[in-house]
Design a protein that fits this description.
By secondary structure, this protein is an all-alpha fold. The protein has helices at about 15-25, 30-50, 55-70, 70-100, 110-120, 130-140, 140-150, 170-185, and strands at about 1-5, 205. It has one domain. Helices cover about 55% and strands about 0% of the residues.
């Protein structure tokens, strides 16, 4: 299991914990792209806050980050593409967990791909091949993507679950961890399978650090299908 590097080792969230979480959701398998995203966000913050550097070394480190970061217009296109993939992966997981609570015989990736293909029929995202490829790529963060989709939809963007704030990030992570554990314990309805594999295989998943104590969050009632 991969651990989100968002704490100081003593249970306290780092100042950039939200950005690290978002970077991981967008680039779950590419450390260099995560670093590039974080460098771009750091550059934005420094410029917006008109921050002054206490040392030449600090300024040079920031300048190097700025020069290594993608141009804003290029970065926007990349992020939009990755965000769409995250949305799709999150919806696949939500479909499976939702359906498992209502019609368990239909709770599989194959059925989810078919349903989402219908929902996204008018766009490139409606291709079953593209959806399957996206699921394979974003499966390690599907629980985080599902939490984001759930927050934007059923939670009506409640501030206490906003992953971009110090208040909301712990609850957001707790919601995501709940999805991860449910996904890891769910096995698709495949008959006569000798070595069944869970919907979310534990070794490949991103999770919170063991030193971070998650808050208790209310168990949300499942809708029949994700929006």
């Amino acid at each position: 299991m991969s651990i989100l590097p968002i704490t100081d080792g003593n249970g306290k969230l780092l100042n950039n914990a939200s950005f690290v979480t978002i970077a991981t959701m967008l680039f779950p398998n590419d450390e260099k792209k995560r670093e590039s995203f974080l460098a771009a966000k750091e550059a934005e913050i420094v410029i917006e806050e008109k921050r002054y550097f206490k040392s030449t070394e600090g300024f040079h480190e920031w300048l190097e980050s700025v020069l290594q970061a993608p141009a804003p217009d290029k970065l926007k296109g990349i992020l939009e593409s990755q965000a769409k993939k995250c949305e799709v992966a999150g919806n696949i997981l939500l479909y499976i967990l939702n359906t498992a609570a209502h019609e368990s015989q239909h709770a599989s990736v194959r059925k989810a791909v078919y349903i989402l293909g219908l929902q996204y029929a008018r766009s490139r995202s409606g291709s079953p091949r593209w959806i399957n490829t996206t699921w394979s790529e974003f499966k390690p963060v599907a629980h985080l993507c599902a939490a984001l989709n759930f927050w934007l939809g059923d939670l009506k963007s409640r501030e206490d679950y906003d992953l971009g704030t110090e208040l909301g990030l712990p609850k957001f992570l707790a919601l995501a961890e709940g999805f991860r554990k449910e996904g890891e314990s769910h096995y698709p309805p495949v008959k006569h399978q000798r070595n069944p594999v869970s919907t979310l295989p534990t070794p490949k998943m991103w999770s919170v650090p063991p030193d971070f104590v998650l808050p208790t969050v209310e168990r949300m009632p499942w809708p029949l299908l994700p929006d």
